[in-house]
């Protein structure tokens, strides 16, 4: 059982099914953060690909194996049960499996500037892995990238 819908969770589902394991995917949709951007750069195999096109490719790849896809469901709780794991979704559905992979990724942390949400896909000024904006190297990398991509940019 794989929980979550980003590239990591989808790849895990794909490989599990490829190995002929009975695979269940519990996810809100098929995309993860790729859904938040119009273009993905430097993703292995693609120097550039539009976000929606990459999502279509994810879906095509997911459909090549008999993966049981429970899309539109958000996991509310994962618990250990006898012989495996059980996920309870927000809608109250329960799924059980011998093994569970969680690949919940993250939501980019916003920094609270005006129009940030609307401009997310354009300027990309979030910190990829920093828990506190502008406090870690990755945040500085983001700010450097943001500076290059956006004409209006300021770090505060
Ligand atoms: C604006 C933007 C631009 C980017 N540009 C690039 C780029 O050019 N090149 C590049 O390589 N990378 C880029 N990235 C980063 C890339 O999208 C991420 O590194 C990648 O998506 C991470 O994949 P993941 O599977 O680990 O997690 P995520 O993509 O974060 O997916 C995890 C998913 O799990 C879901 N989830 C969480 N909790 C639950 C739950 N309880 N139940 C069900 N589902 C749940 C989340 O909603 C999310 O959809 C960009 C990201 C953003 C936001």
Explain the overall architecture.
The protein is of the alpha/beta class and 156 residues long. It has two domains: 2-102, FAD/NAD(P)-binding domain (3-Layer(bba) Sandwich), CATH 3.50.50; 108-156, no CATH class. It is 29% helix and 25% strand. A four-stranded parallel sheet has the order 5-2-1-9, covered by helices on one side. It has a three-stranded antiparallel sheet with strand order 6-7-8, with no helix packed on it. The protein has a two-stranded antiparallel ribbon with strand order 3-4. The termini are far apart. It binds flavin-adenine dinucleotide. Flavin-adenine dinucleotide (FAD) is lined by residues 3-9, 27-28, 32-34, 36-37, 40-43, 74-75, 103-106, 108, 120-121, 124.
Topology, please?
Layout (H helix, E strand, L loop, with lengths): L1 E2 L3 H12 L5 E4 L11 E5 L2 E5 H12 L5 E4 L3 E7 L2 E6 L4 E4 L3 E2 L13 H8 L13 H13 L7
Parallel strand pairs: 1-2, 1-9, 2-5
Antiparallel strand pairs: 3-4, 6-7, 7-8
In short:
The protein contains four helices and nine strands.
CATH homologous group name of the largest domain: FAD/NAD(P)-binding domain
If classified by CATH, what would the architecture of the largest domain be? 3-Layer(bba) Sandwich
CATH topology of the largest domain, what is it called?
A: FAD/NAD(P)-binding domain
Low-pLDDT residue spans:
124-144
* CATH class assignment of the largest domain: Alpha Beta
């Amino acid at each position: 059982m794989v929980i979550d819908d980003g590239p990591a969770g989808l790849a895990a589902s794909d490989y599990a099914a490829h190995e002929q394991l009975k695979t269940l995917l519990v996810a809100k949709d098929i995309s993860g953060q790729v859904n938040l951007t119009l273009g993905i750069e430097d993703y292995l195999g693609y120097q550039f690909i539009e976000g929606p096109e990459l999502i279509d490719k994810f879906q095509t790849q997911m459909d090549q194996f008999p993966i049981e896809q429970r899309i539109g469901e958000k996991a509310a709780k994962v618990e250990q049960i006898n012989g495996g794991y059980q996920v309870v979704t927000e809608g109250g559905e329960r799924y059980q499996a011998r093994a569970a992979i969680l690949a919940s990724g993250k939501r980019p942390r916003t920094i609270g500037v005006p129009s940030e949400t609307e401009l997310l896909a354009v300027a990309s000024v979030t910190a990829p892995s920093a828990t506190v904006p502008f406090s870690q190297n990755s945040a500085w990398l983001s700010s450097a990238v943001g500076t290059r991509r956006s004409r209006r940019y300021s770090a505060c």
